[in-house]
Amino acid sequence: MKLDYIHQDFTTAIPQFATLSTVTPANENEDQSQFTARQTRLNLTVTGPEAFGAKTRAFVEGDFYGPAGVNERGNLRMRHANFTLDWGNTQVLFGQWWDIFGPFAASTLDFGTGANIGGPNNPRVAQARVTHKINFNENNWLQIIAGLQDPQQDDEEGPVNAAGQINFNSKALGVSPGYWGLPMQPFMVGVFGLWGESDTSPANAGQGSGGLAPGATPPAAGLSDDDFDSWGVGIHTHVPILKSSDGKSRAGTLSFQAQAYMAEGLTHVQATQYSFLQDAGGSVDAAEGYGAVGQLIYYPTQPLGITAGYGRRGISDTSDYRDALATGTIVAAGGPFGTAGDPPGTVRSYNDAYWINTTYDFANVRFGAEWMHLETHYIGSSEEPEGDRFQFSAMYFF
Domain range holding 346? Predict the structure, then answer.
């Protein structure tokens, strides 16, 4: 169960999710407040009989952000729905789970995981994946993940997305708390990647993206039905700076987590703000972008946690955008929450966020408070809108 109070000096359509939002000149000068309990989650785990010599498990989770719901009458929405076959060192998963690309998750109170500031692991996606563990010894191992995922960027008309991770883990530095202070994790460094195809046809351009760059030519205006590759590669890490004294206690621990990536045309996971560009000759190129995010998680005592972080997502092909803006022939499908409110004739160069929060646990009850600062920067405008956001949360785990 989760109750949030949010106050921010800018307005968004979904104030509950700060790290899915962007501050623009159109929304930065009006305050907004909200109480909400829609982030309450319900889940069910079922352990079944062995099959093919493997342990079986099914997991279903939902929240209250279903279609046509409102703040006081949230409708149930599926978040996760999957089952696994587990042989110990090898696990196969079928169903909906976190995207394999961009595994970092920001420990922010909004549950947004830092999606548009360098942590693009949303949305959850239907997939089939295999996870295999190679043990070097009792303290060091390699984890390999490979999977096929729903190609959400192409309205399901293209091939599947292929994604994977290779992660090295070691207990040489001990363990320390990870996301939200809940899992204890060893040192880890890994790489990840995703490849798929996108379609620029009028029917598919910008699927799941919610809008075009301000002043852009709509895709239907002379845009051919072309395919282009959409891909991304990155690196992520978890470092126990101050380890747990016994492998279980959080008291006196300090963790560092970070991630960086480069990508093209991956608006569906919010790794890039834009999908594609069209030059004056009509040729189409995937829009390039990057992201970088990091956080420190400190537990001076077992119940008291403090997290501070910074993240940025930006475009890496700035010269292409400047040329397109100069000729007026840019076609750029916007990110999942659109580009409404941006100054005319501009594109977003980068957006970033700083945050610090503290939580305190009383048995199954957790209280939290957070400050976050968001900024947006443009090509084609000197305006740099910014906003501050405050959130207070009360949670009960059962």
Answer: 2-396
